[in-house]
């Protein structure tokens, strides 16, 4: 059982908490072993939207597989969220033991207080990026991205980006297909526009209305590491290969084969970022050999 521990700060935004909490709860409903816990420095936590929450003041025992997430709050960084020495130490200890810590929106300030952003890349809500950079010059603030991953420290932008963060963490642990199932249950296929290189490909190309293409993507998402002839995908969608290619290209801007290759490459990048060798990542994601994976990685911006 993996614990997902949310550290609640006064005046937190409900969606900063509810978005990732729903994602991990849905993943648990789909058969993954997640248990959600809530901790705070005081049992009652006021929220920005006026609904009080209750949390434990005792941290559970954590392992390296567990996650700690800090939702953001209303107000500037310095307001409402000066963490105690014990809370900062708990964040540091979890990361030092091999665990992952994450933040949504202003929650980056909590990680910065604990020193976890020193020397690491980070992001936060666009309205707070200048303040984060000024208060904590040791962190390298990345602008105009949904989330940033740096050595098991994951920071995300404003409010709803916490869902993107949670889906990324689920994809890293269980693969793109399972994260896509969670996203579909939450009805969050449509993503924001703009240059967001950290977005998952399984979500980036789901903002369309073609049921046929969604069915094709469901099959590719679930079996992206397998050999999937175009004819097999088309048959599963009750259309001809030519029609599928036309519909798929119109909806996503790429062919089914290119989409599958994109999923493979993204999953391989996740594996490599978490310590896998290129050869092992290539085998796990369905590449015939590591040379193809290396060539594709060399073309990445």
From TrEMBL:
HTH araC/xylS-type domain span: 214-301
SUPFAM superfamilies xrefs: Class I glutamine amidotransferase-like, Homeodomain-like
GO MF term list: DNA-binding transcription factor activity; sequence-specific DNA binding
Alphabetized CDD domains for the sequence: GATase1_AraC_1
Alphabetically ordered keywords of this record: Signal, Transcription, Transcription regulation
Gene3D superfamilies on file: 3.40.50.880, Homeodomain-like
Tagged with keyword Signal: yes
Signal peptide: 1-23
Database matches in Pfam families: DJ-1_PfpI (PF01965), HTH_18 (PF12833)
Protein name: Transcriptional regulator
InterPro entries reported in the protein's UniProt record: Class_I_gatase-like, DJ-1/PfpI, Homeodomain-like_sf, HTH_AraC, INH-QAR
């Amino acid at each position: 059982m993996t614990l997902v521990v949310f550290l609640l700060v006064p005046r937190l935004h409900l969606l900063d908490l509810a978005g990732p909490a729903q994602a991990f709860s849905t993943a648990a409903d789909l058969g993954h072993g997640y248990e959600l816990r809530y901790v705070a420095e005081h049992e009652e936590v006021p929220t920005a939207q006026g609904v009080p929450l209750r949390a434990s003041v005792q941290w559970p025992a954590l392992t390296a597989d567990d996650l700690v997430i800090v939702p953001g709050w209303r107000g500037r960084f310095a307001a409402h969220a000066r963490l105690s020495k014990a809370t900062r130490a708990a964040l540091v200890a979890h990361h030092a033991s091999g665990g992952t810590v994450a933040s949504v929106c202003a929650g980056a300030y909590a990680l910065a207080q604990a020193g976890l952003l020193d020397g690491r890349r980070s992001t936060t809500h666009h309205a707070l990026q200048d303040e984060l950079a000024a208060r904590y010059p040791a962190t390298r603030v990345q602008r105009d991205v949904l989330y940033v991953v740096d050595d098991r420290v994951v920071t995300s932008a404003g409010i709803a980006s916490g869902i993107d963060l949670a889906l990324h963490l689920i994809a890293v642990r269980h693969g793109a297909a399972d994260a896509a199932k969670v996203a579909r249950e939450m009805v969050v296929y449509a993503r924001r526009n703009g240059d967001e290189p950290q977005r998952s490909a399984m979500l980036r190309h789901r903002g369309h209305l073609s049921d046929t293409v969604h069915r094709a993507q469901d099959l590719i998402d679930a079996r992206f590491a397998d050999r999937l002839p175009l004819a097999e995908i088309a048959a599963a969608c009750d259309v001809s290969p030519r029609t599928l290619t036309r519909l798929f290209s119109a909806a996503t801007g790429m062919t089914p084969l290119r989409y599958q290759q994109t999923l493979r490459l993204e999953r391989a990048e996740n594996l490599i970022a978490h310590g896998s060798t290129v050869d092992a990542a290539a085998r796990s994601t369905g590449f015939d050999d590591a040379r193809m994976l290396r060539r594709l990685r060399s073309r990445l911006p």
